[in-house]
Amino acid sequence: MCRVLSVSRSGFYAWLSRPLCKTKQDNIELTKRIEKIHEESRGVYGAPRIQQMLRAQGYRYGKNRVAKLMSQARLRGCPIRHSGYAKQQNMYSHIAPNRLCQNFVADKANQVWSSDITYIQTRQGFVYLAVVMDLYSRKIVGWSMDRHMGRHLAINALEMAISTRRPGPGVIIHSDQGAQYGSDDYQNVLKKHHILCSMSARGNCYDNAVVESFFGSLKRERIRKYRYRTRQEAKLDIFEYIECFYNRKRLHSYLGFKSPSDFEAEHDNVN
After folding, report:
1. In 10 A of CB 133, how many CB atoms?
2. Which of left, alpha, beta for 74 (phi over 0: left; psi -120 to 50: alpha)?
3. How many angstroms separate the CA atoms of 220 and 76, rounded?
4. Are 146 and 170 in contact (CB under 8 A)?
5. What angle do CA 125, 130, 134 make, to 5 degrees?
6. What does the DSSP assignment read for the chain?
7. Average pLDDT of the chain?
8. End-to-end distance of the chain based on CA atoms, in angstroms?
9. CA separation, residue 173 to residues 69, 82, 167 (Å)
10. Tens digit of each residue's pLDDT (9 = 90 or more) over 151-180
11. The predicted structure's pLDDT at residue 91
12. Distance CA 158, CA 1 (A)
């Protein structure tokens, strides 16, 4: 090989014994840190969030360098897949005006909530998940899971949010025009607690884009990675994602790469 490449034997052996340069040594250590953060996020975090985690640990590395080392280590986050669907409207349900008009910004906690329902497939059949999100911190403040997608699914999520947050009168809760949200029982709970109802335009998923985005993250980062055997297995895993990971640990770009709980703790605006 030395003869073909016109390299002296002494130069070759000197190269073998020569230590790695400082940049390569740093890259090896940085890759180990990246792999640890990626593993702790269960393969969810890509380069932007890993960079923010490194910064929180006191390391200043550029996003491009992190992305390059992730590529070399064959690590990747969960890419976004865009899709949309429209729900059917119940002609006999209550229809409320759209009070948000795609303005998903709140000045304080318990000012504007948003709610929606999605489904999770298991080998036993579907599990339906309803959530209530506080748009101030993007925190999931109420949720409910059941094998049936009836009005009680939305009511249980709402009552959990009311119980844990204890909002004052006048909080707005936004949803689509699904029959669950337009039912008499759901509307009676809103009236009892003096909560204002807001609904998206018919078939417009963009009017509830923040919760749709949460569902996208949930399915991309957790549900599509597993094939749930039972509904109970799915419920336990989704509970862990919402309460242990998303609310408490997951870095949210809208919040300046803070978790919803950390964001609320810093601003101390929760009633």
Report:
1. 27
2. left
3. 12
4. no
5. 155
6. -HHHHT--HHHHHHHHHSPPPHHHHHHHHHHHHHHHHHHHTTT---HHHHHHHHHHTT----HHHHHHHHHHTT------------PPPPTTS-----SSTT----SSTTSEEEEEEEEEEETTEEEEEEEEEETTTTEEEEEEEESS-SHHHHHHHHHHHHHHH-PPTT-EEEE-S-HHHHSHHHHHHHHHTTPEEEEPPTT-GGGGHHHHHHHHHHHHHTGGG---SSHHHHHHHHHIIIIIIITTT--BGGGTSB-HHHHHHHHT---
7. 88
8. 73
9. 43, 25, 11
10. 999 999 999 999 999 999 999 999 999 889
11. 47
12. 72
pLDDT at position 166 is: 93
Q: Would you call 57 exposed, middle or buried from its count of C-beta atoms within 10 A (0-12, 13-18, 19+)? A: exposed
Over the stretch 33-67, which tens digit does the pLDDT of each residue have? 888 888 888 788 888 888 888 888 888 888 888 88
**pLDDT of 90 higher than 80:** no
Nearest 5 degrees, angle CA 92-CA 97-CA 98? 125
Q: Is 43 exposed, middle or buried (0-12, 13-18, 19+ CB in 10 A)?
A: middle
Q: Quickly count: other Cβ atoms within 10 Å of residue 53's Cβ.
A: 22
Max mean pLDDT range (61-70, 86-95, 228-237): 228-237
Which of 99, 131, 105, 104 is closest to 116 using CA atoms? 131
Q: Collect all residues with Cβ–Cβ distance below 8 Å to 232 and sequence separation of at least 6.
A: none
Kindly write down the DSSP assignment for every residue of 116-130, as one continuous string: EEEEEEETTEEEEEE
pTM of the predicted model over 0.85: no
Distance CA 31, CA 61 (A): 12
Token couple for 40: 């702790």
